[in-house]
Amino acid sequence: MAKKEWDYTFKIILIGSQGVGKIDLMSHFAGQDQMNNSAIGVDFKLEGIELDGKKIKLQIWDTAGQEKFQTISSSYFRGAKGIMFVYDVTNRKSLEDLALWIEHAAEQAKKTERIILGNNCESESARQVSKTEGEELAKKHGMRIFETSTKASLNVEKAFLTLAREIKEKMDRTEKNSL
């Protein structure tokens, strides 16, 4: 019998307004050059990690990020184990839009693990959203928050690994409870 290559496969989707840096976050985590362009429709990357001696394949999906694509993104919730809600700390509207994305996800993917990312935190002089505002949003929705920067390599890997660990722990608990 062939050896299983992966112990787990987790589909993680990045959701947020266009231009908040979802593609850059995906590419940075996957060790690829940042693309600094917008996805039309959907883009995804695969990345392998190891947690607690288990090999995990992450399928990281970037939905289009434009409100007109919200109906398209509904199909991408199927099978998702985790969601990263992304806003740009230099763009207040992206935080305001995040409330709609969170509401939409609550209808589509009730049992997913979720975190919020405040991206581009290296741009302190251009900041429009305070760290406290992001923390309040995360607390309101019962999520963790990370301020991230692909330019400064800040918290990107930590955010992905934290979400992957939360998914794995939830799956382990579910498996243990079903025995």
TrEMBL record:
**Membership in a protein family:** Belongs to the small GTPase superfamily. Rab family.
Which top-level group of life is the source organism from? Eukaryota
Q: Which keywords does UniProt give here? A: GTP-binding, Lipoprotein, Nucleotide-binding, Prenylation
Give a Gene Ontology cellular component term annotated to this protein.
Answer: membrane
Could you identify this protein by its name? Ras-related protein Rab-10
State its location(s): Membrane
Q: Which InterPro entries match?
A: P-loop_NTPase, Small_GTP-bd, Small_GTPase, Small_GTPase_Rab
Single GO MF descriptor: GTPase activity
Q: Where are the transmembrane segments?
A: none
Q: Does the keyword Amino-acid biosynthesis apply?
A: no
Pfam families named among the record's database cross-references: Ras
Where is it chiefly localized? membrane
Record membrane topology = Lipid-anchor
